[in-house]
Amino acid sequence: MNERFQTAADGVDPARVPGRRLYNGLEMPAIGLGTFGSDKYGAEQVAQAVGEALRLGYRLIDCAACYGNEAQVGRALHGALDAGLDRGELFVISKVWNDCHAPKDVRASCERSLRDLGLSYLDAYLVHWPFPNAHAPGCDVAARDPHARPYIHAEFMETWRAMERLVDDGLVRSIGVSNVTIPKLARILQDARIRPALNEMELHPSFQQGELFQFSLDHGVQPVGYCPLGSPSRPERDRTPEDISDLDMPVLVQIARKHGVHPALVCLKWAVQRGQVPIPFSVKREQMRSNLRAVVEDPLTPEEMHALRALDRNDRKIKGQVFLWPGAGSWLDLWDVDGTIPGWNGYGPHA
Ligand SMILES: NC(=O)c1ccc[n+]([C@@H]2O[C@H](COP(=O)([O-])OP(=O)(O)OC[C@H]3O[C@@H](n4cnc5c(N)ncnc54)[C@H](OP(=O)(O)O)[C@@H]3O)[C@@H](O)[C@H]2O)c1
Q: Model's pTM, two decimal places?
């Protein structure tokens, strides 16, 4: 018989971390750890961070096949499970990558993630991007898949049917979407037999996506916020000269000073108090520890929440250029900015 898994003395008791109830009755922690190494941190380093995060009290881990580290992360999960962590306390997300949207590939991809992670089920499985367009890891933003396609709802629903079968067959408990827009999510909700429980979307103070955020909540879809700190260490290819650095926004810095914390922690307090589930990435123990502690102590005041609301600059960091199809215009065509889903020729003549 295993001993109970011990949380580090300077960590956070997971029972103190707020939870979010999904429409299907399942509960998830209100903050988790991201595992995308951003080309900067290798698989072993990320896996080590996962092990440390579990000891610090994290129970939600955001994984994906395309992060290329699920086997290593799986070993870290198992280290904790073998040391007495109850599987029921963990909430593990994984995602099907764009080159596996064909229904038979969805199942194979899920089974591969389960094998790599060493789990018998996933708590949530997401369609990583709504486009079946693949590209080599780490490629330049100008790279294009010659077989790339726009969002075609009937095709997406074929993928979604395969996702639903994973729930039927007990491989996953919840299914969800990522990188969708209101027009796409509305159609998916209308045609789904099993509705998405999660919507993983970019969310940080300079990019609050108020309408999609509220639309998701209104339809019982829990927003999970990626790049919650504005992804300060994202790869060069995901940077443009106009990008704002969230952590340097003067109002945010001022609030952080008042609380005596790093601006990153204000982003996380704001995220959890607003109602999204942030999944900050870090491999550094002190960052992971302070990120988790931030959401169980010293909350922001209503006035501070209000001041942060005004920081929205519609500043999307992950623009997704590599997912464009031949015939599309700019990356804006990926995000349905006119409120409609553009087809093969995008929104029209190229700028
Ligand atoms: N669904 C999707 O399409 C999608 C897309 C992107 C990301 N994601 C998920 O979201 C997760 C997070 O996104 P992200 O890593 O791009 O962005 P992020 O969490 O906003 O930024 C992570 C970086 O912030 C820094 N940091 C973390 N904690 C800090 C602290 N307390 N103080 C100061 N700096 C701190 C670290 O930089 P240093 O390492 O330089 O210290 C870390 O690498 C990913 O790991 C992934 O799981 C999903």
A: 0.97
